[in-house]
Amino acid sequence: MSTPEPRRLVVRGCDVLEVPAEGECTVVSGKDIHITGNLITSIVPTGRPVPRAAEILDGTGLLATPGLVNGHTHSPMVLFRGAAEDVPVHDWFNKRVWPMESNLTAQDVHHGALLACAEMISSGVTTFVDHYFFPEQIAEAVASTGIRANIAPTFFSSQGPAALAETVAFAEHWHGGAGGRVTVSLGPHAPYTVDDADLTTLAVHARRLGIGLHLHASENLAQTESSMARRGITPIEVLERTGILDAGVMIAHGCGIIPQDYAMLADHADRVAVTSCPKVYLKHALWPLTPIRDLLDLGVTVAAGTDGAAGHNTLDVWEALRLVAMTQKLETRDAMFLSVSDTLRLAMRGGAAAARLPPGAGALEPGQLADIVLVDLSGLHHRPLHDPRAALVYGVQTNDVKSVVVDGRVLMRDRKLLTVDVPGLLAEIDARTGRLVDTSSGASVQFYDP
User: Fold this and answer.
1) Are strands 249-253 and 213-217 parallel, antiparallel or unpaired?
2) Total domains present in the chain
3) Could you tell me which residues come within 8 angstroms of residue 299 by beta carbon, excluding any fewer than 6 positions away?
4) CATH of the domain at 29
5) Same domain, 234 and 306
C-alpha cells in the first residue's frame, strides 16, 4: 500500500513578521510560506512556482505572524463571562465562581471548551495552556476544532486519591493525542489547595511521564504573606521542597514572587515558566504585578495569558500582551522596558516555551510548526502604518485577524471558521446559561482561604 502524500499548503504573497530569539523583530515583504504536513519548509520571495497539489491561502496585503499562545486560561469559563463583576477576589471565588462551577456537567464543559476554541481561533490564538475540570471534554474539543492545547486537569487534595489517579490516567491516555496537538501537564490547583504529599506525588508522576506541571502559585502578595505566616516559607519554597520546580512547571500569575524566591527560580530557570494575566489583577485591584523584569533577568520564561473569561471577559491575547507591556512600564517606571519587539517575543516565543512546544517554536522559520496568523493592518485604526510591530502590540483588534493556520491546516479563512458549527454551538450555549449561574443550592467546588 502506498503512503499518502503529505498535505501541502502555500500562504502566498504575505509580509512576514520575523521574531528572533534576541534583538529587534522585523517585517519582510512579499513572501510565500511553503508548508508540508505540519511544518514550514521554506519562506521564499512570492511569485515562484508552487506545487500543483498545494492548497493556496492568499496572504496579499496581510502580515503573517506566529500564532499567539494563551499562556494560562480555564477555557470552559467562557460560560461565566460577565457573571462575577465588581467584587474582591475572595467574594469572586466564594460567592460567585466556585458556587457556579458546582453546576457544571461534562457536556457543559465540552460546549464551553468548543466556544473557547472558536473564540481563540478567530482572534489568532493557535495554542492555549489550560487548567480545568473534565479535561477529556476539553481534549475532545481541541481534537475536533483543530487548535493546539496543553491541558492540565485541575486537582484539589480534597477530591482524594481516586481523583489524583484519574488526573494521572488522563495524562497517560491523552498526552500526544490528536496527532500531537494535545499535550498534557499535571494540574494541582495551588499549594494552598493541594497538600505537600500530593504535590510530591504529582511531581514524581510528571518526571516519570516526561511532562510538566501547571499550577497557581504566589498569585498575589497576600498569598505569599499568608504562607509565610502559617508555614514560615513562601509558596515557591513549597514548590521547591516538593520537587515541583525540579520536575518543570508553568506557574500562573506569580505576582507574589519575592526576592527570596529568586535563587530557587534561577536554579530551575530551564524548566520553569510564569504566565502574567494583568487584566484580572487590575479588575481585582491586586498589586504588585508579576515581576517580569526580574524573572527575565533570572532566565525564567515569561508568557502572556488571559486567565479564564469569568475574570478576563475575553480570551483575547492581543489585549493581554498589550496590557503586559503597558502595566510593566508603569510597574517599573520605565517607558523603555518591554519594547514592542520584546513584547512580541514574550507572547510568541515565550508563550510557545510555556506551552512546552518544540524548541524554537513561536517563530515563522523553516522546520518550525506551521501555526500562522494572517493579520490585516489596513484598517482606519492602523493608518498611517509607521510601524507594523507597534500596531500588533498596541492597536490590533481581534477582527483584524483574517485567516489562521494550525499544524498546517487552515482553521479560519477570510474570517470564516471552518471547523466549528457556530450557530449550533451558540444554541447549545444559550440553552445552558440560566442554570449555570444559579447559586441558590449553596454548593461550591472549594472555599478560597489561601
Assistant:
1) parallel
2) 2
3) 266, 269, 270
4) 2.30.40.10
5) yes
Give per-residue pLDDT as tens, 18-74.
999 999 999 999 999 999 999 999 999 998 988 889 999 999 999 999 999 999 999
Angle between helices 422-436 and 106-122 in degrees, nearest 10: 130
- Alpha-carbon distances, residue 146 vs 54, 57, 65, 139, 375 (angstroms): 19, 17, 18, 11, 19
Question: 450: number of CA atoms within 13 Å, CB side?
Answer: 23
pLDDT tens digits along 352-397: 999 999 999 999 999 999 999 999 999 999 999 999 999 999 999 9
Which amino acid is residue 280, in one-letter code?
V
Q: Can you give the length of the chain in residues? A: 450
For cell 490585516, name the residue: 376
Is the same domain home to 18 and 90? no
Cβ neighbours of residue 261 closer than 8 Å, sequence gap 6 or more = 218, 234, 236, 237
Residues 206 and 339 in one domain: yes
Does the residue 41 lie in any domain?
A: yes
269: number of Cβ within 10 Å: 16
What CA–CA distance (Å, rounded) separates 405 from 419? 12
Structural domain span for residue 262: 69-354
**Residue 265, domain CATH:** 3.20.20.140
Asked whether residue 240 is domain-assigned, the answer is yes
Residues with Cβ < 8 Å from 267, sequence gap 6 or more? 245
